[in-house]
Structures are given as C-alpha cells and as structure tokens.
Amino acid sequence: MLVLLAGIFVVHIATVIMLFVSTIANVWMVGSSNYGTISKGLWLLCNRTCTQLPVSNEDEASLKAVQAFMILSIIFSVVALVLFIIQLFTLEKGKRFYVTGAVMLVCWMCILIAVSIYTARFTNTVAFSTNPHHGYCFILAWICFCFSFIIGILYLVLRKK
C-alpha cells in the first residue's frame, strides 16, 4: 500500500510540473518559415524574439478560456496534492481521499475543456508558417489529461484501503 501511495504521489507531482510547463512554455503549435522555426503558445508568438500573441477578435474569447482553464487545472492539481498530504495523515481508513479524488477530477475536466477548445479553434494556425504541427506543450497537456484522470480514479478507489 505504501508503495502504491508513493507511486501515485510521484505521478501527481510529475503531473503538476508538466501542467506548469505546458501552460508557461510557448510551444503549443510549431511551424517553419523563411526566418526559422515559429512557435505559438498560449501567451506569446516566438520566432527569433517573442512578441504578444496576435489574436483576432473572434478568437480572443477562446484563447482567454484556454488560458483560464489551464491555470485552473494547475490550481486544482496543487490543491489536490496538498489535500492528499493532509488527508493521508489526518483521516482514518475508509474516509480518505474522497475530496482529493474529486478535486483531481475537476482538474481533469479543466484540462479537457482547455485542450478541446485549443484543438477546435487554434490547430494548424501559425501565422506566416508552413507545415504547422503540434508542439510538446500541447502533447504534455494531453498527457496531463490522462494522468489526472487516472490519479483521480485511483484516489477514489484508495479511499477503501
């Protein structure tokens, strides 16, 4: 049981770190141009230097929603990690991890919403580039989506142990 809890804790910390990286780094979409590689994130457009991300009026609300849900997912993931540590040492068997699992599943839902909106609105759109493709931040966000769902379910199952 202790090994299982330690494994879940390590995966949870890895998920928090990957969420930070995927939200902060500007490599959600990558494309090639005459001037080199162009990368676009949630905040900046980077070629040789990074500038404010140009967004049309119709896409501005979608981008702000993606930004907000990614930040919310980080917050919920950190809160779930703190709750896990607190509940591990304070609650008795059979009552542990209800709240932690629920908060982690809310984090999972926030990631799902953010990445789904980004996929629907911003895929294959890198200004002045050819051959656009997804960057590592987009892939990390989907990996965090999977990890947060698995961790949330495991927390709910572990409440019985």
**How much beta, percentage-wise?**
5-15%
Poorly predicted tracts of residues: none
Average pLDDT score: 87
Structural class: alpha+beta
Rg over alpha carbons: 18 Å
- The number of domains is 1
Overall geometry: elongated
Spatial separation of the terminal alpha carbons: 8 Å
- Across the major sheet, the strand order is 4-3-2-1-5
Number of strands: 5
Transmembrane segments: 7-29, 65-85, 97-118, 138-158
Family: Belongs to the PMP-22/EMP/MP20 family.
Organism: Loxia leucoptera (White-winged crossbill)
Protein name: Epithelial membrane protein 1
Helix/strand layout:
Blueprint: H1 2-24, E1 29-33, E2 36-40, E3 44-46, E4 50-52, H2 57-90, H3 98-122, E5 130-134, H4 136-158
Structural descriptors:
161 residues, alpha+beta, 5-stranded antiparallel β-sheet, elongated
What's this entry about, in short?
The chain is an alpha+beta fold.
Q: Would you mind describing this structure in some detail?
A:
- Keywords: Glycoprotein, Membrane, Transmembrane, Transmembrane helix.
- It holds the Pfam family PMP22_Claudin.
- This is Epithelial membrane protein 1.
- The protein has 161 residues and is of the alpha+beta class.
- It has one domain.
- 65% of the residues lie in helices and 13% in strands.
- The protein is built from four helices and five strands.
- Strands 4-3-2-1-5 form a five-stranded antiparallel sheet.
- β3 and β4 form a beta hairpin.
- The mean pLDDT is 87.
